[in-house]
Here is the input.
Amino acid sequence: MRVVSGIQPTGNLHLGNYLGAIRQWVAMQDEVAAGGGDCLFFLADLHALTQPVVPAELANATIEMAATLMACGIDPDKSILFNQARVPAHSELAWILNGTARMGWLNRMTQWKDKAGKDGSSQSVGYFGYPVLQAADVLLYQATHVPVGDDQKQHLELARDIATKFNTDYAVDLFPLPEPLISKAAPRIMSLRDGTAKMSKSDPSEGSRINLVDSDDVVAQKFRKAKTDAEPLPDSFAALVDRAEARNLVTIYAALANRSTDAVLADFAGQGFGAFKPALADLAISVLAPIRERLMHLLNDRGAVGGALVDGAARASTLAAPILLAAQRAIGLQV
Here is the structure.
């Protein structure tokens, strides 16, 4: 089993990132390592170039994102942690696969259609073609599994289509078809201001999210101001079907406590949010404060964090080299 996943180094990670993905990555690295497999987690700094960047900010964000992943529990000794740009094979394979991918496939990508809108001509070529780089990111390591959310399933399907066409066109069995790895335990965390919108680091409202670097007081304040309703909590999660904000806060509590939502509601049934919100804030602080403390410690030695990325890139390059060479030979670039 070989698991590959990446995250763009843009902005602070928040509670939704942690509960929805990173905590699963941490559990996964132990399970995969125990089975003799590999986990590769990378900072997708090449993907960040699809939008305008400030060079110094990108370099800084890459170190801070790596430190955050390490603070959350990603262990460079158990997993391969690196930033994408340090492994040139990503770019090289992406260019090769650009000859295999088809314009029609990319035009159908819903994220492209949604974000480019009516003025797609003003977007960068990289923004249109980045799903091909995503395909290269996973095919370069012959990944067997890729952790994905609902919004990335289509991109993994594209990677499978590219792999199939390349294997067929050049009569090779080089790229396995990566399977999606969707953790049923991973909750979908929504905005604290709008229970119908996903918690996002791009939301202009700081109050919409809990950042992993937020102080205890800020965490408590954000939960205190989180949007709710005036009704008391019921005794079952099913009864919250039409109460999006209430569902979100109960989901967050259950995820932080590693309990079922119904078990949480059994404790709070009949109570209002005046009692629930402080309890949720205390629980969140107990989980997030140690992460924040580890992060601050890591950021006091950014050189060590950068060194971990260099070491990870060397290990990733060793895995990638024979696969890139095989692709080059298949297509006639190497003999």
In short: The longest strand covers residues 2-7. The radius of gyration is 21 Å. The chain has a mean pLDDT of 93.
